[in-house]
């Protein structure tokens, strides 16, 4: 699989698949979900991300709103990666994602399909798009941890 993730065509295909068919792309009307609204100053991105964090486990993540290709694909991939993970695992994935975006050392195995976004680091104006959903989940995890 790793050699496939070095193929620009495969990476574009993964991004387009998550953009055209985003996973977990419907908000819940459920008070047990935390919710964070994020909007970009430099792009059309205006999304709400919801998460159901029960104790140490992220039980569900969903999102909706208007987003560019990169933010929609990134948030879709993030939701798939983090659902079912405990907070420690989620933080490790998030740290690896930010390391990749910031061109630092990261573990591609941990990021799975999200490595498709590694090229974003070379486009400074797209970094906010690629991290908007990740910032929202990080905020919800931090708030969840602070309640303990």
TrEMBL record:
One example GO MF annotation: iron-sulfur cluster binding
EC number: 2.-.-.-
Database matches in InterPro entries: NIF_FeS_clus_asmbl_NifU_N (IPR002871)
Keywords (A to Z) from UniProt: Transferase
Transferase found in the keyword field: yes
Keyword Disulfide bond recorded: no
Residue intervals of the NIF system FeS cluster assembly NifU N-terminal domain: 13-129
Pfam families referenced in this protein's UniProt entry, alphabetically: NifU_N (PF01592)
Gene3D superfamilies, sorted: 3.90.1010.10
Gene Ontology BP term (one): iron-sulfur cluster assembly
EC category name: transferase
Protein name: Zinc-dependent sulfurtransferase SufU
Organism per entry: bioreactor metagenome
Gene field: sufU_3
């Amino acid at each position: 699989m790793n050699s496939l993730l070095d193929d620009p065509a495969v990476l574009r295909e993964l991004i387009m698949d998550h953009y055209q068919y985003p996973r977990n792309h419907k908000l819940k009307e459920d008070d047990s979900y935390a919710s964070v609204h994020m909007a970009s100053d430099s792009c059309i991105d205006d999304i709400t991300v919801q998460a159901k964090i029960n104790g140490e486990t992220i039980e569900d993540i969903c999102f909706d709103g208007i987003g560019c290709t990169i933010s929609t694909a990134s948030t879709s991939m993030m939701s798939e990666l983090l659902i079912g993970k405990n907070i420690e695992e989620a933080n490790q994935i998030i740290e690896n994602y930010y390391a990749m975006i910031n061109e630092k050392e990261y573990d591609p195995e941990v990021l799975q399909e999200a490595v498709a976004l590694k090229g974003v680091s070379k486009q400074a104006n797209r970094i906010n798009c690629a991290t908007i959903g990740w910032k929202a989940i990080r905020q919800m995890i931090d708030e969840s941890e602070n309640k303990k």
